[in-house]
User: Fold this.
Amino acid sequence: MFKFYGMYLQAKAIFRLALVGAPYQYKQPLYRDKIGRFLWQLNATLRIILNKLSFGLTPPPAIMLGFEPSLKFSKIMFRADMLTAALTAFLSFILLKVII
Assistant:
């Protein structure tokens, strides 16, 4: 039972990694896709810079963590989700302080 649940979690994490890891790896002609590709590249670049400035305290983008064979896909997505949650909370706090 637990073995199958673990495989389910890995399959779910691989699917999510494909969605958020490199969604715009192939160039698409639509203008909406060009904007999405630019925003995704900006996000990945900022996460790399944040990783370098924090001396590895924050994880690199999920697509880069996917090349590390010692990590499971569920651990990769957990790290990416935690950084996203922390950045969202930080930016929400800053935005709240600016508004109030």
In short: The chain has four helices and no strands.
